[in-house]
Write a structure and sequence with these properties.
The structure holds three protein chains of three kinds. By secondary structure, chain A is of the alpha+beta class. In chain A, strands 2-3 form a two-stranded antiparallel ribbon. The longest helix of chain A has 18 residues. Chain B has a domain of 309 residues: Amidase signature (AS) domain (Amidase signature (AS) enzymes), CATH 3.90.1300. An eleven-stranded mixed sheet of chain B has the order 1-3-2-4-6-5-10-11-9-7-8, with helices on both faces. Chain C folds into three domains: 292 residues, no CATH class; 111 residues, no CATH class; 61 residues, Arc Repressor Mutant, subunit A. The longest helix of chain C has 22 residues. Chain C is elongated, with a radius of gyration of 31 Å. Chain C has 15 helices and 15 strands. Classes of the chains: A alpha+beta, B alpha/beta, C alpha+beta. The interface between A and B is large, with 54 and 71 residues. The structure holds magnesium ion and zinc ion. Magnesium ion binds next to loops of chain C. Magnesium ion (MG) binds next to loops of chain C.
Chain lengths: 101, 490, 488
C-alpha cells in the first residue's frame, strides 16, 4: 500500500493543531493515520459528480435573534475558570507576533 | 418489588401518588451507587447531598398538594458531556478536570423544570470519542453483565448505570452511535432523536452536525417519558427545530397501541456483516413483527458501506475545530512553565488530551487542511448526501428499518484498543443514522452464547419519534428481554 | 532613468463595526470602555457547549451597507469557521464567511477634485465576528480582554482600483459618510470602528518594460491621515527599493508592514507571508441565511440617496458651490435638515448660507447637530424667506438665527422683538429719500455730474437714509429709488 502520509506531514498537521506530539506519537500516528486514510479513500469508489455536499440535514435557514441585550457573566465569573489572570484580564506569556484578521 | 426493579415511569407514578417518597427512592439509588459503583465505575461525580435536597423539595411540594413536573422525584444520571452549573463538567477529559461551567445545558434545565433529581454525572470516552468508554481520562467503566467487558461508548457510564440500576434512567449523547451501542451492549433502551429535536445548547460539542442528546432507559416507555421532557425548540440553539416545523408529540399516550399495516425495511446484505448470534437475534425480532402482521420489505442501501469513511472525516473535521478552544488560555488545563504563549497551546493540549482525541484532531485537521479539503472533507459531504438519499428512498417503501446496533456484543477490555481502525469499523450500523440526521432506537432483543445482550435497532424518518417508539414498544410488549437484569444488579 | 514612470496600485481591506446593541452571536451588549471582561458570556467566551445565534439587526445592517455599495446580495449565504490560534480568539476560530459572502461584486463612487467621481469596484462584503484585545503592557506577559470578542464586523474588500494616496483617503471618507448616512456604524476611526488595511504596490514602466513591485499590506492605521500618509510613504519606499535592488513581485512575496505613527514610516512585520492555512469549513452550529424578497425590500426601504449623489445634485439642482454642497452633505442629518427647509419653499442659497455660515458653527461649538440646537427646518425656512423677501437683512438673519438657538422663539417674533424688520414701504422710503436729497445738495450734484466722487456720494446718501430709519430701510429699495431719481 502506498504511503498516504509521512512523518513530515504529521509534524506539519500537529503544528497546525497545536499539539506538541512526542516523536513516539508522531511515529505511531503516521502509521495509524495512514491506515485510516487508506480506508477513508474507499469513498473514491463512488462517483459524486453532480452531488451537492451536505453539511447539514436540517431544512431550515434564517434563524435570527432580536438585537436585545441579555446579561453577561461579569468579570469575576468570566475569569473564574482561568488558569492565570491579572486583575480583570486573562494572563498569558508575552505575545510577540500578530494574529490574523 | 424492590425499588430498583421499578422503571422511571413506575417510580414517578408512586411518588406522585404519595405511596413512595423521592427521598426514599433517591437514597436507594445512592446506596446502590455506594455498594456497586466501585465495581461498575459508571459515575464520575455523585451529588448525594444535592440530590437528597432536590428529593426533599419534591416530597414537600407533593405533600403540600402542589403540581409537580413529569419526572418529579425520579433519580436520574446525566453523561458528563452536559454542562451543569453544579459540580465539574469534564467531558471525560483531563483538560477540563477543574472546569466549572457557569451555566446549565438546556436539557439539564428541562430535567430540573420537570422536577427530576440529578444524582450524578456519568463516565464517557473523552469528548465522546470512542465506542468502549476506555478513552475516559478518569476511570474504567465495566459492563454490568460481565465486568471483564466494556460497556460500549461513548455513553458507557450512562448505559452501565441504567443496566446496574444505579439510577432510574439517564441521558447520553450520540454522534455516531454513542447512545444506541452502549444501550445494546448493556441490555437497555437507547434513543437517538432526530437531529434538531433536542437542544444541543450546553452539550459539549464533538461533531456538531451529528451530535444529539437522548435517553438511555430500562424501557421504551421511559425513553418516551424522557424524550417528552427534553425535546423541543430552544432559541439558544440555531439548529433546534421550531414547533411549526416539527411539533413535539405526546410520545407516551398512544405508546401501547400497535401499528397496523406496518412496513419494515431490511437490508439483508448489509446486515450480513454482523456476528451470527447478532444476526439470528435480529432475524428473530423481525420475524416476530411479521407474525404480528407487519410486511417485510427488502431494501438495497448501496451507500451505507461508505458511511464509516464519510463519518470519520466529517466528525473529526468538526471535532478538530470544536476542540481548538481547549488551549489553556481562558479555562481548563494549562501546562506548567510554558516558555512562550505558543507552548501554552501546544503543551497544554499535548499533556491533557488523550491518545484517541489527539488522533481524531490530527485526522480532522488533515482533512480540512489546504490541499486535502476537496479530496476528504468535501468528498465526505457528498457521500453524506448519497447516504441520506438511500434513507429517503427507503422510507418511501417502508415505515421503519431494522438492523443490528453493532456487529458484535460487548467485547473485552483492550480487545480493540490498540487498533483504532478496527474500533471505528464496529460503528458500521449506527453511523449512517447520524449522517442522515434521522432517529434510531436500540431495544434489547436477545443474548449471545456468552450471555451478553444484543440490541435491535429501529430507524425511522426524521421526526418520526412517536411512531418509532410505538414500533419499539410492539417488540417490547411481545418479548421479555428488557426485563432481564445482570446478576450484579440483583 | 529619465523615462521611468510609475502608477500606484492600492486595494483596501476594510473592517467596519456595525452599531447594533448586542454582539453578533450572543446577547452581550457591545462594549464602550467598561471594565475588562465584564461583557462576556458563555458564547463569546467560547465555553464548551455554548452555541451562536445570529443577531438579526447585524445581518440587516450588513445587507443594507452592501446594498449601498451596489453589491449583489446573495440569495444563499452561510457561515464558515476560520481557524487560527490567538489568545484574543477564545474558540480559536473566527465565525466568518468564506466562499459565499452576503455581498458579491459592487462598487463605490468616490468624489475627486473638480466635482468628478471615480468608481472603485468592491470585490465582496461579508459579515464576521471581531476578536477580543491583547494588551502588551508588562515585559513578560500579555493581557487578554474579551469585551470586544464577538462584535459584528462588516468586512469589505475592494479591487485594486485606487491610484493615489488622495483617492485612498477619499474612499475612506466616503465610506465613513455612507455608513453613517445609513446609520449602520458610528464609523469612528479613533475608536476602531473602521479599520483600513491597504495593499500597496507600484507598476513601473521603464525603457518600454513593465515591472511590478512586491505588495505590502499596511496595518495599524487609526486615522485618515495615517491611511493617506502610509500609502504615500509606501509608494516612495517601494520606488526607492526598486531603484536600489530591482526587486519585483514574485509569487507570494507579499509582506506585512505596520504604520509607525510617530515617525510616519511603515515597518516590516512579516517578510514572506507565511502561507496561512485557516482550514475554513461551514460552521455546523449555524444555518444558512436565505434573504427573502420581502425581507430585502424592508431593508432596502432604509436605503437613502448616498452622500456623493446628493452632493452632485446640490450643485446641479440648487446651484450651490461644490464646497457648500460638500459641507451640507457631510452628514445625513444636516443634509436632511437642509432639504426639508428647501422643500418648505425657502431659497436653497439662503438656507445654505444660514447653515454653513452660522448654523453648523453654533452646532459645533455646542457639540451638537442642528436639531440638537432646537432648530427645526420650518423655522430656518421662514427665516430664509424673510431674508429673501427683504423683510430683514442678511446680517439681521444671522442675529435672529443666533437668537432662535438661544431663546427657541420663532424668527418673525424675534425680528419684531429685536426691531430688525426692514422698512420696505416704497412711499415712505421715497418721502425720507426726498428729504435727504433736499438736505444734501452737494452730494446730489456730485452724483449727477458723474465722475470719481459719484460713487462715494451715493453711499453717503444711502447712509443718511439708513440713519433716519435707524437701519431698518430695505437697502435694495432705497438704492432703486436713488437710481430712479438721479440716474445710475
Ligand atoms: Mg476578516
Ligand atoms: Zn457574549
Amino acid at each position: 500500500m502506498e504511503q498516504r502520509i509521512d512523518a513530515e506531514q504529521v509534524r506539519k498537521v500537529a503544528k497546525l493543531a497545536r499539539l506538541a506530539l512526542t516523536e513516539a506519537e508522531i511515529e505511531e500516528f503516521t502509521g495509524q493515520l495512514g491506515a485510516i486514510l487508506g480506508y477513508v479513500e474507499k469513498m473514491n469508489e463512488l462517483d459524486t459528480t453532480g452531488v451537492e455536499p451536505l453539511a447539514h440535514c436540517l431544512p431550515i435557514s434564517n434563524v435570527l435573534r432580536a438585537d436585545e441585550v441579555r446579561p453577561s457573566l461579569g468579570t469575576d465569573m468570566t475569569l473564574s475558570n482561568a488558569p492565570d489572570s491579572d486583575g480583570p484580564f486573562f494572563k498569558v506569556p508575552k505575545i510577540l507576533d500578530e494574529g490574523a484578521a | 418489588m424492590a425499588l430498583h426493579e421499578l422503571t422511571a415511569l413506575e417510580l414517578r407514578d408512586r411518588i406522585a401518588a404519595g405511596t413512595l417518597s423521592s427521598v426514599e427512592a433517591t437514597r436507594a439509588v445512592l446506596d446502590r451507587i455506594e455498594r456497586l459503583d466501585p465495581t461498575v465505575g459508571a459515575y464520575l461525580a455523585v451529588f448525594a447531598d444535592r440530590a437528597l435536597e432536590s428529593a426533599q423539595a419534591v416530597d414537600r411540594r407533593i405533600a403540600a398538594g402542589e403540581k409537580v413536573g413529569p419526572l418529579a422525584g425520579v433519580p436520574l444520571a446525566v453523561k458528563d458531556v452536559l454542562c451543569t452549573s453544579f459540580g465539574a463538567t469534564t467531558c471525560g477529559s483531563k483538560i477540563l478536570e477543574n472546569f466549572h461551567a457557569p451555566y446549565d445545558a438546556t436539557v439539564i434545565r428541562r430535567l430540573q423544570a420537570a422536577d427530576a433529581v440529578i444524582v450524578g454525572k456519568t463516565n464517557m470516552d473523552e469528548f465522546a470519542m470512542g465506542s468502549s468508554t476506555e478513552n475516559s481520562g478518569y476511570r474504567k467503566t465495566a459492563n454490568p453483565w460481565d465486568t471483564s467487558r466494556v460497556p460500549g461508548g461513548s455513553s458507557g457510564g450512562s448505559a452501565a448505570a441504567v443496566a446496574a440500576r444505579l439510577c432510574q434512567a439517564a441521558l447520553g449523547s450520540d454522534t455516531g452511535g454513542s447512545i444506541r451501542q452502549p444501550a445494546s451492549f448493556c441490555g437497555v433502551v437507547g434513543l437517538k432523536p432526530t437531529y434538531g429535536r433536542v437542544s444541543r445548547y450546553g452539550l459539549v460539542a464533538y461533531g456538531s452536525s451529528l451530535d444529539q442528546v437522548g435517553p438511555i432507559t430500562q424501557s421504551v416507555a421511559d425513553a418516551a417519558l424522557l424524550l417528552q421532557v427534553i425535546a423541543g425548540h430552544d432559541p439558544c440553539d440555531s439548529t433546534s427545530v421550531s414547533e411549526e416545523l416539527a411539533p413535539v408529540e405526546d410520545y407516551l399516550t398512544r405508546l401501547n397501541e400497535p401499528l397496523e399495516r406496518l412496513r419494515i425495511g431490511v437490508a439483508s446484505d448489509f446486515n450480513a456483516g454482523a456476528d451470527p448470534a447478532v444476526r439470528e437475534a435480529i432475524d428473530r425480532a423481525v420475524e416476530g413483527y411479521r407474525q404480528a402482521g407487519a410486511q417485510i420489505v427488502e431494501l438495497a442501501m448501496p451507500h451505507l458501506d461508505y458511511a464509516i469513511a464519510a463519518y470519520y472525516v466529517i466528525a473529526t473535521a468538526e471535532a478538530s475545530s470544536n476542540l481548538a478552544r481547549y488551549d489553556g488560555v481562558h479555562y481548563g488545563y494549562r501546562t506548567k512553565d510554558p516558555s512562550d504563549y505558543i507552548e501554552v497551546y501546544s503543551k497544554s493540549r499535548e499533556e491533557a488530551f488523550g491518545k484517541e482525541v489527539k488522533r481524531r484532531i490530527m485526522l480532522g485537521t488533515y482533512a480540512l487542511s489546504s490541499g486535502y479539503y476537496d479530496a476528504y472533507y468535501l468528498k465526505a459531504l457528498k457521500v453524506r448526501n448519497l447516504i441520506r438519499g438511500d434513507f429517503v428512498r427507503a422510507f418511501e417503501r417502508c415505515d421503519c428499518m431494522m438492523m443490528p446496533v453493532a456487529p458484535t456484543t460487548a467485547f473485552a477490555f483492550g480487545e480493540k484498543a490498540d487498533d483504532p481502525l478496527k474500533m471505528y469499523l464496529s460503528d458500521i450500523y449506527t453511523i449512517a443514522v447520524n449522517l442522515a440526521g434521522i432517529p434510531g432506537i436500540s431495544v434489547p432483543c436477545g443474548f449471545d452464547e456468552a450471555g451478553m445482550p444484543i440490541g435491535l435497532q429501529v430507524i425511522g424518518p426524521a421526526f418520526s419519534e412517536a411512531r418509532l417508539l410505538r414500533i419499539a414498544r410492539m417488540h417490547e410488549a411481545r418479548t421479555d428481554w428488557h426485563t432481564k437484569r445482570p446478576a450484579l444488579a440483583g | 532613468m529619465s523615462d521611468l514612470t510609475y502608477k500606484i496600485i492600492v486595494g483596501l481591506e476594510i473592517h467596519v463595526q456595525l452599531n447594533t446593541r448586542t454582539k453578533m452571536f450572543c446577547g452581550c451588549a457591545l462594549s464602550f470602555g467598561e471594565e475588562a471582561n465584564s461583557r462576556v458570556c458563555p458564547v463569546c467566551l467560547g465555553l464548551p457547549g455554548a452555541l451562536p445565534v445570529m443577531n438579526e439587526q447585524a445581518v440587516e445592517n450588513a445587507i443594507l451597507a452592501a446594498m449601498a455599495l451596489n453589491c449583489e446580495i446573495a440569495s444563499f449565504t452561510k457561515w464558515d469557521r476560520k481557524g487560527y490560534y490567538y489568545p484574543d480568539l477564545p474558540k480559536n476560530y473566527q465565525i466568518s464567511q468564506y466562499d459565499l459572502p452576503l455581498g458579491g461584486p459592487g462598487y463605490i463612487e468616490i468624489p475627486l477634485d473638480g466635482g468628478k467621481t471615480k468608481r472603485v469596484r468592491i470585490r465582496r462584503a461579508h459579515l464576521e465576528e471581531d476578536a477580543g484585545k491583547n494588551l502588551h503592557t508588562s515585559g513578560y506577559h500579555s493581557q487578554v480582554d474579551l469585551n470586544r470578542a464577538g462584535t459584528p464586523l462588516l468586512e469589505i474588500v475592494t479591487e485594486p482600483d485606487l491610484n493615489s494616496p488622495e483617492q485612498v483617503r477619499a474612499l475612506a471618507v466616503e465610506l465613513q459618510r455612507i455608513v453613517r448616512y445609513l446609520g449602520v456604524s458610528e464609523a469612528d476611526m479613533q475608536k476602531g470602528h473602521m479599520r483600513f488595511e491597504p495593499n500597496v504596490n507600484l507598476v513601473i514602466e521603464r525603457g518600454g518594460q513593465q515591472f511590478k513591485t512586491p505588495i505590502a499590506e499596511v496595518k495599524n492605521l487609526n486615522s485618515f491621515r495615517a491611511l493617506e500618509r502610509s500609502v504615500a510613504y509606501e509608494a516612495r519606499r517601494q520606488l526607492d527599493d526598486f531603484l536600489e535592488t530591482g526587486r519585483t513581485m514574485q509569487m507570494g512575496n507579499k509582506s506585512t508592514r505596520g504604520w509607525d505613527d510617530v515617525n510616519e514610516v511603515t515597518v516590516l512585520q512579516r517578510e514572506k507571508e507565511e502561507a496561512h492555512d485557516y482550514r475554513y469549513f461551514p460552521d455546523p452550529d449555524l444555518v444558512p441565511v436565505t434573504p427573502s424578497e420581502p425581507w430585502l425590500a424592508k431593508i432596502r426601504s432604509r436605503l437613502c440617496e448616498l452622500p456623493v449623489q446628493r452632493e452632485v445634485r446640490y450643485v446641479q439642482e440648487y446651484g450651490l458651490s461644490a464646497y457648500d454642497a460638500g459641507v451640507l452633505t457631510a452628514d445625513r442629518s444636516t443634509a436632511d435638515f437642509f432639504e426639508e427647509a428647501v422643500k418648505l419653499g425657502a431659497s436653497a442659497k439662503r438656507v445654505c448660507n444660514l447653515l454653513t455660515q452660522l448654523g453648523l458653527k453654533l452646532a459645533k461649538d455646542r457639540n451638537s447637530d442642528l436639531a440638537g440646537l432646537g432648530l427645526d427646518p420650518a423655522g430656518v425656512a421662514d427665516l430664509a424667506k424673510m431674508i429673501e423677501a427683504g423683510t430683514i437683512s442678511a446680517s439681521a438673519g444671522n442675529t435672529i438665527l443666533t437668537a432662535m438657538v438661544e431663546t427657541g422663539k420663532k424668527p418673525d417674533a424675534l425680528a419684531e422683538e429685536l426691531n430688525l424688520i426692514q422698512k420696505s414701504d416704497v412711499g415712505e422710503l421715497e418721502r425720507i429719500l426726498d428729504q435727504v436729497l433736499a438736505e444734501n445738495e452737494a452730494s446730489v450734484t456730485e452724483i449727477t455730474t458723474g465722475g470719481k466722487k459719484a460713487q462715494k456720494a451715493r453711499g453717503y446718501l444711502m447712509g443718511q437714509v439708513m440713519q433716519k430709519t435707524k437701519g431698518q430701510a430695505n437697502p435694495k429699495i432705497v438704492a432703486d429709488l436713488l437710481s430712479k431719481k438721479l440716474g445710475s
